[in-house]
Every structure is written in structure tokens, then in C-alpha cells.
Amino acid sequence: MTEAPSTTEIWLPVVGYEGLYSVSSLGTVRSEARTVQLSNGFTRNLPTRILSAAPNGDGYPTVNLSFPGQPSRTLYVHDLVLAAFVGPKPNGQEARHLNDSKSDCRLSNLAYGTRSDNQRDAVRNGRNHLARRTRCHRGHEFSPGNVRRYPSRPTVRVCMACDADRQNRAKEAHQ
């Protein structure tokens, strides 16, 4: 039996911004309640506030975080969730959205992996344009009888009709 994904929201401090910001297992970022010193010497009490995540040019949710008196930094929400709940990103790894939805920053949808892992996710989720093709560039159908796969490159489909045409042209050129 499959369990439903947890909807319990767990909050942890944002790595590097402890005491200022927290991130939840559901991909929400908030600023923590705190007292700040204003430039005129007065203090101001800031309440806890949920931050609005804005998609960047590629569609990934981002938030602006800052230390008092310093310029803000724009950070990916998925990176904040993974750093807080999983740990630092291993060398050669990147954040993966397991369902390929850029806006879904829930911990249950995120993992570290290689670029190849990310590409396999896209193929599995039907988001890779090459894997979705039903015909080769010359219009031959990618049917089981017309596709060859090489053991060294199992994800590459070779059109056998095009391959036969190419071999025939090569034979004619050498005669």
C-alpha cells in the first residue's frame, strides 16, 4: 500500500542565515521575528513573515535574503530546502525536482543527483523533447522494428531506415 506524502510542515533554519530565516519541508521560506537596530538609533520589532517566492527567468522559485546592513542575495528555494534538510550539496551534484515541476519545492520532491540523474528524470516524466519524438528527422517512424539501440548508448535511438540509406550511399560512393 502506498502512503500519501506527508503534509506536516517542519521548519528548520536556513543554512547561513540562522536566526534570521527558516525554510519548511513544504518549500516555504519565512523571516523570523526579531528586533533590529535602525540607522537613527531606534529599534524596531519585526514579526515572523512568510516570504513571497518569485520565479526567476527559468521558472525556479527564488527569495531574497539579507543580513542586516548588507545587500540581499537571491537564492533558489530548492537549494535552501535541500541544504537545511539533507545537508550541503556534494561535489558534482545538483538539485533535482523528481517530478520535473520547477515550482514544487517540497522536500519529498527534491534530491541531490548528477546531471545524468536529472536528465533521466526528464525522460521518465515525459519532459525530454528527444525522448518524446515519434519520428526521426527524415520522417521515419520510431517503431520497434525500425529502431536500433547500441549497448554503449542505450538511451540513443537510431533509425534503421536512415542507417540503411546511409550505408547504401557509402557503398555507391566507393564503387
Q: What would your notes on this structure say?
A:
It comes from Mycolicibacterium conceptionense. It holds the Pfam family HNH_3. This is NUMOD4 motif protein. The chain is of the alpha+beta class and 175 residues long. The chain folds into two domains: 11-132, Homing Intron 3 (I-Ppo) Encoded Endonuclease, Chain A (Alpha-Beta Complex), CATH 3.90.75.20; 133-175, no CATH class. It is 21% helix and 29% strand. The chain has a four-stranded antiparallel β-sheet with strand order 1-2-3-6, covered by helices on one side. Strands 7-8-9 form a three-stranded antiparallel β-sheet. A two-stranded antiparallel ribbon has the order 4-5.
| CATH architecture group name of the largest domain | Alpha-Beta Complex
Q: N- to C-terminal separation?
A: 65 Å
**Radius of gyration, whole Å:** 25 Å
Overall residue-averaged pLDDT value: 88
Q: Helix count, per DSSP? A: 4
When the domains are counted, the total is 2
The CATH topology of the largest domain: Homing Intron 3 (I-Ppo) Encoded Endonuclease, Chain A
Number of E-type strands: 13
CATH class of the largest domain: Alpha Beta
Strand content: 25-35%
Unreliable runs: none
Assign the structural class, choosing from mainly alpha, mainly beta, alpha/beta, alpha+beta, or little secondary structure: alpha+beta
> What pattern of helices and strands is seen along the backbone?
EEEEEEEEEHEEHHEEH
